[in-house]
Amino acid sequence: MTWEILNVIGTVAFALSGVLVALEEKYDLMGAYVLGFAAAFGGGAIRNLLIGLPVSALWAQGTLFTIAMIVMTIAFFLPRFWLSYWKKWGVLFDAIGLAAFSIQGALFAVSMGHPLSAVIAASVLTGTGGGMIRDVLAGRKPLVLRKEIYIVWAALGGLLIGLGWVQSTGTIIVLFTAIIVLRMLSVHYQWMLPVNPTSSTSA
């Protein structure tokens, strides 16, 4: 049940993030669908490839596809004056999707008996894969590659789940909330990972 709830939350959050990017780039309805579906289901496709499930397993998620389609259509046709307001929430939608899908990917890998390394990888790729595909299709630098800490929070979630420290519904909810909060704090306070001090931006 927890896995299914996280799947729905992540799908809706990333589908909305895809529509927001499409509206900012002035894409048409089909462009919004492409970015939304890529964001919502791209991470799951990458995860399936990683842990040995057929990618075609995604097509069995008919209900999620329907939910994503409805959400994206409503978001696309909302009055455009909402766009400036929604832009403020784009990072939050992405953080919610990151938290939901990274935890879901880790739980999936644990349920299949994979080792800790695979659990962390499944968490990272499920949580960030869809967003990376969305940004690449939109011609943007993926959030994973930007300065603020992003991928670390997905890896942290995978680590805690892989070690068996997060198992119950209560601890999963705590971890879900923590990843969202940490991601938003990293954006607000511009937390960054160390960079090579010898690197130079000069030509």
What gap, in angstroms, lies between the N and C termini?
Answer: 53 Å
N to C succession of SSEs: HHHHHHHH
Compute the gyration radius: what is it?
17 Å
The SS-based structural class is: mainly alpha
Kindly describe this structure:
By secondary structure, the protein is mainly α. Helix content is 71%, strand content 0%. It has helices at 2-24, 29-51, 62-77, 81-87, 90-111, 116-137, 151-162, 169-188. It starts with a helix and ends in a 15-residue tail after the last helix.
Short recap of the structure:
This protein is an all-alpha fold and 203 residues long. It has one domain (2-188).
List the helices and strands and how they pair.
Layout (H helix, E strand, L loop, with lengths): L1 H23 L4 H23 L10 H16 L3 H7 L2 H22 L4 H22 L13 H12 L6 H20 L15
Name a few traits of the molecule.
203 residues, mainly alpha, 8 helices, 71% helix
